[in-house]
Each structure stands twice: as structure tokens, then as C-alpha cells.
């Protein structure tokens, strides 16, 4: 998470100065290669270092929103950007995870992690978890290799005054769509004033890009964007990391307690006591199979929202669905206090995941739509950085209050989401 926090800020400047494609290739290679290194690392310090650099790399993946939007006609932007949520969802399902990509991730985890093979000698210990991490690194490396065959964003090239490269990029898109070079309609392009910042050193350019954004006419929108990202991810990570433990405690209560009367969630959480610790150095790496099923169900619950939003985005608008998603997630977060069974917990967890994940994705979509090319990468990355700060805060809060005061994370999460819902309304009025 710390690597992602640092990387979120830096990759935005790299995307705006060196290009979207360049940034995506480097960050995907970093994520994939350091994931592989972490999977075979036998020293904790090296493992942590590799995870830090992997997080640093993957934080640049938000540049994909800028890369995609700069190829699209305004008419189709909202629809294509919102379709990206489906792939997030698939990932949750495939890993025990979060969207269509979530579905694939859950299936992969279920297939690999329960395996009991073990490769061990005096130099290395390799088990199913190591293989799973390697499998998860392959999409990043594959994407980097595919991007090497793709052109740079035409709007970025245009903003840098590269006339010939822009024409070649448009020819590539025309050839891809029509399977022919015939009837290419563009013969020349009116070049805007060049926005070349290559004379600056890296850190001077990073500082100047940040100052330029927050002193431009887009400064209010940039501030509101950061607040929305912070509120969304604080609430999301605070609860989504709690749900598996909450399921475990409900399962414990329903298995070992005589619950004839309804008991609230906070009462069950406070009753749960971990079994006395045993001084046993043997590692118990068994994972209950229900964990995979529960996460898969949560991932599948995201599919309806991932389908509905792209289908109706042109009629109802991107901002309508953003406000609706955070309103729905705030209600589901607040309702957690009243649940009394594992089934209710599963239903509410699924609703919260469905609304929150689409809301976060739509926030990225709105961000890259609102800012011009020269600010787009930095604005998206700074918003992401505030989101990672929120994620760290959410992790800390849930760790502090989960046992003693479970009402606190519920109250904080729902309050942040309600605040975000209001900020979304303000956001819409500004744009």
C-alpha cells in the first residue's frame, strides 16, 4: 500500500511528460517482475522490498483510463469507460476477489491455493501460494508486451506538437477498424501550442506539474476529486477487508452458540474470542473452502451493476450513476449495524461491493473526462494518491475498533459515503 501511495503521485507526472503508453508499459513490467521475485523470495526483507516495488508499479495502472479516453470520440467515452468496471468485477470472481476479472481471479485462487504440493530444499520453499502469486503476475507482463505493439495516445502526441506521430497513430486506428489504409480521411492536423516540459529535471517537473494543476482554473474540481477519492476508498477498504472476518465470526457464532434470540452484529463481534494461543511453530496454512465461495458470490453480485451502467449510461449520464452508487453504498454500510445472521451479512456485503466498486470506477471515468490532456494524468494520479491515503486510514481504523467498538467503523464508513454522495452532487454542479 505504501508503494502504491508513492507511485500514484509519481506516475501521473510521468504519464503527462513521457506518455500514457510508456507509463503503462513500465509500471506493468515493474508489477509483474517484482511479483515474480517476491514469490520466490526466501527472505522476509527481500519479500517486503519486492512487494513495495510491485505496489509502486501497479499504482500507475490508473493511467489506463487516460490512455483509453484519448482514443475515444466524445459520444462513446462514457459507455466505453464504464465497461471497464466489468473487467474489474471479473477479476474479483477469478481471485476470490472483486468484478468479470474478479470472477476469473477467484477461480484461479480456488484452483491453485488448496493444492498441497511442496518443493523444498536447503535453498527454496515453494508451495501453492508461490505459484498463485506467479500466476497473478502474468496478466501484467502480458499487458506490457501487448502495449508495445500499440501506439501512443493521439491526444498526448498532439499536445506535444508531434504532427507526424499523431498522423501515424490515427492511421493505425483507421487500419485497425477498417482493415485497410484506403480512404484515410485525415491529411493534416491543426497543431496546438506545444506543452513540452522536457527542459525540467524530473523533480522540478513533478513539482511544477502539481503547482500548475492546483493554480489552474481546474483547481476546485481537482480538490473535490481528491476528497471524493479519499472518502470512497477509506470506506471501501475499511469494510471490504472486514467482511471475511465478519463472515468468520458469524459462522463461529452460528456453529457453537445456541442463538434462539436474534443478536446484533456488534454483539456477535464482541462475543467472539480467539481460541487460546498455543506455542506451536508449525504453520497451519489450511483455508476453509467457504472463503472462496463467499468471495465469488460477492464478485458475481457486481455483474448486474457492471452491465446496467454501460447500457444506460448515455440515457442517464455518468454523474447520475456515480451519485446513485455512493448513495446505495452508504445505505448498505449503515445497515450493517442491524444484521443478525451470516446470510444477511453476505447479502449486504454483496450490495456494498456492487455499489462501491462501480462508484470508484466511475469516479476515475469522470476524472479523466473533466481535465484536459496536459493535466489529465496528474489529476487522476493525485486523486488516486488521496485514495491510497484513505485506504491506509481505513485499514488502521478497522484494526483499532473491530473488537472493542465495532459501531465506529460502520459510522465512519457510512458518514464518509454520505459526505461523498453530497460532494458528488457539488461535483456535478461544478461541471
UniProtKB/TrEMBL annotation:
Residues 1-431 form the Major facilitator superfamily (MFS) profile domain. Its main location: membrane. GO terms for molecular function: transmembrane transporter activity. Keywords: Membrane, Transmembrane, Transmembrane helix, Transport. It is a multi-pass membrane protein. The chain crosses the membrane at residues 21-40, 46-68, 129-148, 220-243, 291-313, 320-339, 351-371, 392-412. It holds the Pfam family Sugar_tr. The keyword Transmembrane applies. The keyword Membrane applies. It is found in: Membrane. GO terms for cellular component: membrane. Belongs to the major facilitator superfamily. This is Synaptic vesicle glycoprotein 2B-like isoform X3.
Amino acid at each position: 500500500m505504501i508503494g502504491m501511495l508513492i507511485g500514484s503521485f509519481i506516475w501521473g507526472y510521468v504519464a503527462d511528460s513521457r506518455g500514457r503508453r510508456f507509463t503503462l508499459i513500465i509500471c506493468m513490467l515493474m508489477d509483474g517482475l517484482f511479483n515474480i521475485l517476491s514469490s520466490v523470495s526466501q527472505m522476509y526483507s527481500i519479500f517486503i522490498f519486492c512487494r513495495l516495488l510491485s505496489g509502486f508499479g501497479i499504482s500507475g495502472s490508473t493511467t489506463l483510463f487516460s490512455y483509453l479516453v484519448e482514443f475515444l470520440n466524445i459520444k462513446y467515452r462514457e459507455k466505453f469507460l464504464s465497461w471497464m468496471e466489468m473487467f474489474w468485477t471479473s477479476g474479483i470472481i477469478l481471485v476470490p476477489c472483486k468484478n468479470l476479472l474478479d470472477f476469473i481471479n477467484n477461480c484461479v485462487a480456488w484452483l491453485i491455493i488448496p493444492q498441497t504440493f511442496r518443493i523444498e530444499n536447503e535453498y527454496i520453499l515453494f508451495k501453492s501460494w508461490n505459484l498463485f502469486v506467479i500466476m497473478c503476475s502474468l496478466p501484467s507482463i502480458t499487458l506490457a508486451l501487448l502495449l508495445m505493439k500499440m501506439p501512443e495516445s493521439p491526444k498526448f502526441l498532439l499536445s506535444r506538437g508531434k504532427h507526424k506521430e499523431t498522423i501515424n497513430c490515427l492511421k493505425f486506428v483507421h487500419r485497425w477498424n477498417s482493415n485497410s489504409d484506403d480512404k484515410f480521411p485525415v491529411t493534416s492536423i491543426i497543431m496546438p501550442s506545444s506543452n513540452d516540459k522536457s527542459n525540467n529535471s524530473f523533480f522540478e517537473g513533478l513539482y511544477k506539474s502539481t503547482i500548475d494543476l492546483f493554480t489552474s482554473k481546474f483547481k476546485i474540481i481537482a480538490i473535490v476529486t481528491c476528497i471524493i477519492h479519499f472518502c470512497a476508498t477509506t470506506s471501501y477498504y475499511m469494510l471490504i477487508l472486514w467482511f471475511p472476518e465478519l463472515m468468520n465470526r458469524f459462522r463461529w457464532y452460528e456453529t457453537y452458540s445456541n442463538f434462539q434470540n436474534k443478536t446484533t452484529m456488534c454483539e456477535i463481534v464482541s462475543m467472539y474470542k480467539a481460541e487460546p494461543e498455543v506455542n506451536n511453530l508449525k504453520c497451519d496454512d489450511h483455508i476453509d473452502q467457504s472463503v472462496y465461495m463467499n468471495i465469488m458470490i460477492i464478485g458475481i453480485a457486481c455483474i448486474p451493476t457492471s452491465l446496467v451502467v454501460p447500457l444506460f449510461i448515455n440515457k442517464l449520464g455518468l454523474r447520475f450513476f456515480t451519485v446513485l452508487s455512493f448513495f446505495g453504498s452508504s445505505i448498505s454500510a449503515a445497515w450493517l449495524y442491524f444484521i443478525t445472521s451470516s446470510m444477511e451479512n453476505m447479502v449486504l456485503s454483496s450490495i456494498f461491493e456492487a455499489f462501491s466498486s462501480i462508484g470508484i470506477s466511475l469516479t476515475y471515468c469522470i476524472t479523466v473526462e473533466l481535465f484536459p490532456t496536459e493535466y489529465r494524468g496528474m489529476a487522476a494520479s493525485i486523486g488516486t494518491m488521496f485514495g491510497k491515503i484513505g485506504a491506509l486510514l481505513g485499514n488502521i481504523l478497522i484494526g483499532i475498533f473491530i473488537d472493542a467498538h465495532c459501531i465506529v467503523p460502520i459510522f465512519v464508513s457510512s458518514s464518509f459515503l454520505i459526505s461523498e454522495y453530497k460532494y458528488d452532487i457539488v461535483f456535478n454542479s461544478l461541471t
